[in-house]
Amino acid sequence: LKVLRAERDWSQADLAERLGVSRQTINALESGKYDPSLPLAFKISRLFAQPIESIFHPDD
Amino acid sequence: VSERHDNEPKYTPAEVQSSRRYFAEFGGAMLGYVILLPSAILLIRRLPEWRLGLALLPVVPLALALMAVLRFLRRMDEFNRQLQLEAVGFAFGGGVLATMTYGLLESLAGLPRISWTWVPVVFMSLYGLGTAVARWRYR
Question: With contact defined as beta carbons under 8 Å apart, do B20 and A24 qualify?
Fold first, then answer.
């Protein structure tokens, strides 16, 4: 997620705004401390135009 | 990977808006409370026969404050709700433990009786502590 975000040169705040979540949430997702709900994972996948399994891995 | 987000605003515009709304609603309710509480005390002195209803007057803004909190919770995203669940769970469990402990000390060990109005103070303090702990865990 961090890499995808950096590729687009978005800050955590930019990504948070696009996903309608808080910056803290992006931070927790990127540090692997929080697993997104299915709706949020689909939103992220749609935003980056990549399948969910290429962004999130079961062992994360 | 760049870390330039360190200098970015901490909150998104939607979060700022949601917080402002919460502080307006909650602050308004608290303002109502600080006005109604002394009013109720003064009125009870003049109209002691109405004291039951008058003593409940400050409860109205407190109920409005509760609604403000619940509305704020519903506006939060899923991660912040999880944080809040941990904080509230800590406060609820800790509050039950603290009040039960003192209740036993009071009734069995003869410690002085204290007012019920201390109960919310205990729960609110533990909620504050619980929020800090939850934020620290997911920092």
Answer: no
Q: Please state, in angstroms and as integers, the Cα–Cα distance from residue A23 to each residue in B35, B64, B101, following that order.
A: 37, 29, 40
- Say whether B131 sits in a helix, a strand or coil: helix
The nearest CA of chain A is from the CA of B1 a distance in Å of: 6
The predicted-structure confidence for B66-87, as pLDDT tens digits, reads as follows: 999 999 999 999 999 999 999 9
Query: How many Cβ pairs closer than 8 A exist between chain A and B?
Result: 58
pTM for the predicted model, two decimal places: 0.82
Q: What token pair was written down for B92?
A: 């609820």
Tell me B113's DSSP state: P
C-beta of residue B132 within 8 angstroms of C-beta of residue B90: no
Terminal Cα-to-Cα distance of chain A (whole angstroms) = 11
**Closest to B9 measured CA to CA, from A42, A45, A12, A30:** A12
CB contact under 8 A, B79 and A25: yes
Q: Do A13 and B80 touch (CB under 8 A)?
A: no
User: Is the complex ipTM more than 0.95?
Assistant: no
Residue B12 to residue A6, Cβ atoms within 8 A: no
DSSP letter string, B54-96: HHHTTHHHHHHHHHHHHHHHHHS-HHHHHHHHHHHHHHHHHHH
